[in-house]
Write a structure and sequence with these properties.
By secondary structure, this protein is an all-beta fold. The protein has a single domain, classed as Immunoglobulin-like (Sandwich), CATH 2.60.40. The strands form two sheets. Strands 1-2-7-6-5 form a five-stranded mixed beta sheet, with no helix packed on it.
Length: 134
Amino acid sequence: MTDKRKEVTKREAQSSMETERTRNRKVFVPKVDIIETDSAIELVADMPGVNEKNIDIDLEKGILTIKGVIEPEHYKDHRLVYAEYEIGDYQRSFSISDTIDQDKIEASARDGVLRLMLPKVEPAKARKITVNAA
């Protein structure tokens, strides 16, 4: 029997285009699932260790940017000797098309998982326009 488990590793952001580093610590690119329905697009981002209060979401000029800051744990009277899991912040950006209703985007987070609902713009409905005498 073969072991089919896949090791998941975090990818560190490599260029300044991916992140703007204002803190002296690693920044990782969170893994994201994108789910599309007829009425919306849902982004599900894994940011383990990020508290809901430390998530920042910006939308500017059609670019949606998510950032998650991790506050490292400090152990009283102990020091970390070995760690297999690297600690760092998270950041990722997405281009948002005109098919998304940017005023109705909603976000929720729980247990290190961020969910963004991006509702699609409703198609324009046909209507009759009356002409008034000037």
